[in-house]
User: Which sequence fits this backbone?
């Protein structure tokens, strides 16, 4: 089954404690990205990757890091989380260009930073 | 700078009637536009897309219209069903350059039985 898997689904952490949210896709997609969803602001892109070892900043990259060492995995790293990073996070993957451009999303990670 | 805008945060429609969700964009270089549906506690799921070289695409009860001169697209759902109640996001991207997916802020549709 084609899917994007994020872990964990829920996470409560304290300010400053490093954390990683994992994302894995099984569709051999080149393009992967991370979004955060906040009330009234929709989905805002944090980082994206067009292929292995190729990453770039989205619209709200401050306080986040990513890596793309393998095609299937795209972890999101918060080195020193702060309360303003409390949000709902989604990972997505898609093919680049052409007809098959739809993005597949994970089920989301609800992060609370206290 | 919000390149993709959904100006209506919410919409209520009676079951069986037409739902029309609107989206405006500012960048004329977008190649594809897509609509996603999102239920609570789930990730967004793809609904329908349209290439910038077309003005209409239909899939069952869902039709997307693109007006390039007005930089406007709309999603029509006919007939609306209670199961269509969800948040709808429009999205746009370019296949060249930085290839960024850009989403609107979403419209919450409520279909009343």
Assistant:
């Amino acid at each position: 089954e084609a899917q994007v898997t994020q872990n964990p689904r829920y996470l409560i952490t304290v300010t400053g404690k490093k954390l990683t949210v994992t994302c894995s896709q099984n569709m051999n997609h080149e393009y992967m990205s991370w979004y955060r969803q906040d009330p009234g602001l929709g989905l805002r892109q944090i980082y994206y990757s067009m292929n292995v070892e190729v990453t770039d900043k989205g619209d709200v990259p401050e306080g986040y890091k990513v890596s793309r060492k393998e095609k299937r995995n795209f972890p999101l790293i918060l080195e020193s989380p702060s309360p303003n990073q409390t949000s709902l996070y989604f990972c997505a993957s898609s093919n680049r260009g052409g007809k098959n451009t739809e993005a597949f999303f994970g089920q989301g990670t609800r992060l609370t930073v206290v | 700078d919000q390149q993709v805008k959904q100006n209506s945060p919410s919409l209520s429609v009676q079951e069986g009637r037409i739902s029309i969700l609107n989206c405006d964009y500012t960048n004329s270089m977008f190649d594809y536009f897509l609509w996603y549906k999102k239920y609570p506690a789930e990730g967004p799921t793809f609904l329908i897309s349209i290439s910038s070289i077309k003005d209409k695409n239909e899939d069952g009860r869902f039709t997307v219209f693109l007006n390039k001169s007005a930089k406007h697209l709309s999603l029509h759902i006919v007939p609306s069903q209670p199961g269509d109640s969800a948040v709808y996001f429009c999205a746009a991207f370019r296949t060249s350059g930085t290839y960024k997916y850009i989403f609107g802020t979403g419209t919450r549709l409520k279909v009343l039985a």
Notes: DSSP finds no helices and eleven strands in chain A.
